[in-house]
Structure formats: structure tokens, C-alpha cells
Specification:
The complex is a heterodimer of chains A (60) and B (238). By secondary structure, chain A is mostly helical. Chain B has 238 residues and is mostly helical. Chain B has a single domain, classed as Four Helix Bundle (Hemerythrin (Met), subunit A), CATH 1.20.120. Helix content of chain B is 75%, strand content 0%. In chain B, helix 2 packs antiparallel against helix 3. The longest helix of chain B is centred in the C-terminal third of the chain and has 48 residues. Classes of the chains: A mainly alpha (60), B mainly alpha (238).
């Protein structure tokens, strides 16, 4: 039996909904990865700045 | 404490990160293009291939975080505290993914976003518990932090079997288990393959996140230590 136009439209809406669901899931995962990646680089910069300050202090 | 320098190798080896990204792309291909449609729910059932692996990753994270927390209490080695923090933070991320996807599926299939049945409520409690963990961890003094966090982790580990068993024990709106359920349960072999592939991919991604977060925790500790030593030096007029 061929699906009715309503069934096809319902499935189409479900497909759009599915894309939204996967989109939000990937956004959450990606946002978390970016956030910890940025935190890592900020901390590395902070540590090298602090180490440079300490070394400069010792040279004086 | 381990020396941290800018020249340290990346927390996650490049080949593992590439493998995780590739696996994720393959998984998406399998979900959207390869696996057959489920007979009653149709295309929206494909949420299942990401919703369930996200839940599995959060369950694994709960146990890893909980065991690491207990090991920290016993051994007082900071590496266990870092692992516990890393794993527990990922519980929040994966549980949020799990709940958001489940809720979007429910809106199309049940016509509602949410219902307070046993499965959904216990999953919400898990998310709430670990979000509270992250807040409490920041607010608690360092001396008592390990004990407080260990208690929350133990509660989280108790909640995991409850979530898993809730639709076996209680009558819930949540679909009955398709793996390890009653004799009528089961999956088409292709669906089973995509689910298993999804679980492996999600665990790989979770492993990468935990390693990266653990490195951040090490760096935070090193930065705090450096600040403290610098302040001591200044105070002593060295």
C-alpha cells in the first residue's frame, strides 16, 4: 500500500526533527570540547607567563 | 608533582582524535543512510542510535568517576582526584545529550516533551546530582572536598543501576528494553550493529574528553601551585 501524503509529510517533519536532535547533541559535545581546549591553552599561557616572571625575578 | 611545560605532547594523541572524528562521521552515515527504518516509529527512531550510546557513556563515566573518587580518598594521590573530576564533568555533558535527544524523540512520538516516569526521573536526578557535584566542588574548601565529592559520586553510582533497571522493574512510558529485555525484545542485526558502533564511538569520544579534561585539571593544579610559590617568594622577599 502506498503511503498517503499526510504520512509522507509526517515523516518529513520527523526527519527535520531528527536533524535538530542530532544538531543539538553535536553542538553540546562540540561546545564542551572547544571550551576545555580553550581552557587548556589559556592555562598553558598563564603557566609560561608565571614561569617567565619567576625566572626574571631570579635573574634580578 | 609532574612538571608542566608548553612543549608537552597533546593530552589526546592526534591519531586517537582523528579516529574518534572518523568514527563519528561513519556513525552518522550508518544512522542516516544505512540502517533500516523502524516499522512503527519510522525515521524518528534513529535518535536511539545516539541517545543510548550517550547514556552508556555517562554510565561508564559515573563508575570511573566514582571509583577514582574512592581511590583518591584512600591514596590521597591527586591524579585520582583529577580523573574523578574529568569523568564526573563528562557525566553532565553526556547525560544532557541523552536527555535532550530523548525529550525531542518524546515530543514527536508521545506528543509531550517530558513525563515524570521512573526512567526519566532517575536520569534527571543523575544529571542534577552531577551538576550539583560541579557546583559543590567549587564551593567546598579543599580539605573537605574529597569526602563531599565522594559521597555524591557514590549516590551517582547507585542511581545508574536504578536508571538501567527502572523500565524493567516499574511500569514506565519509556520504551521497554530492546537488549536484555523479555523474550519478545530484540533488534534487527543491522540496527544492533549501528547501536554497537555508536556505543564504541561514543566511548572513544568520551575517552578523548576525559584525557583532555584531566590535562586541564593538571594544568589548573600546576598554575595554582606556581602562584602560591611565587606569592611565598614575594612574601619572604627572596
Amino acid at each position: 500500500m502506498n503511503p498517503s501524503i499526510d504520512d509522507v509529510l509526517f515523516e518529513l517533519r520527523n526527519l527535520i526533527w531528527l536533524f535538530y536532535a542530532y544538531g543539538i547533541a553535536f553542538f553540546l559535545l562540540f561546545a564542551y570540547l572547544v571550551q576545555i581546549g580553550r581552557r587548556e591553552s589559556t592555562l598553558r599561557r598563564r603557566i609560561s607567563d608565571l614561569q617567565a616572571t619567576v625566572e626574571e625575578h631570579w635573574k634580578k | 608533582m609532574r612538571d608542566i611545560s608548553a612543549a608537552d605532547p597533546p593530552a589526546v594523541p592526534i591519531w586517537i582524535a582523528v579516529a574518534a572524528a572518523t568514527a563519528m562521521i561513519v556513525h552518522l552515515y550508518l544512522v542516516f543512510c544505512w540502517v533500516p527504518n523502524e516499522a512503527t516509529m519510522g525515521i524518528i527512531q534513529r535518535v536511539f542510535y545516539f541517545h543510548v550510546p550517550a547514556a552508556m557513556a555517562s554510565f561508564v563515566a559515573c563508575f570511573v568517576g566514582g571509583i577514582a573518587s574512592i581511590l583518591y580518598l584512600v591514596k590521597r594521590d591527586n591524579k585520582w582526584d583529577d580523573l574523578s573530576l574529568a569523568a564526573n564533568e563528562t557525566v553532565v555533558v553526556f547525560e544532557a545529550v541523552n536527555i535532550v535527544m530523548g525529550s525531542m524523540w518524546a515530543r514527536r512520538v508521545w506528543g509531550i516533551w517530558w513525563t515524570w516516569d521512573a526512567k526519566l526521573t532517575s536520569a534527571f536526578i543523575l544529571l542534577f546530582l552531577y551538576a550539583a557535584y560541579l557546583l559543590i566542588r567549587r564551593a567546598t574548601p579543599v580539605e573537605t572536598r574529597a569526602q563531599v565529592c565522594a559521597v555524591i559520586c557514590i549516590l551517582g553510582m547507585v542511581d545508574v543501576p536504578l536508571i538501567y533497571m527502572s523500565n524493567r522493574i516499574f511500569r514506565t512510558m519509556h520504551p521497554s528494553p530492546v537488549i536484555g529485555g523479555d523474550k519478545n525484545s530484540g533488534l534487527d542485526p543491522r540496527m544492533y550493529f549501528v547501536l554497537a558502533f555508536g556505543v564504541m564511538t561514543m566511548l572513544l569520544l568520551w575517552g578523548c574528553m576525559v584525557k583532555l579534561r584531566r590535562r586541564v585539571a593538571e594544568l589548573e593544579r600546576a598554575a595554582d601551585d606556581l602562584v602560591r610559590r611565587t606569592n611565598e617568594m614575594i612574601d619572604q622577599g627572596v
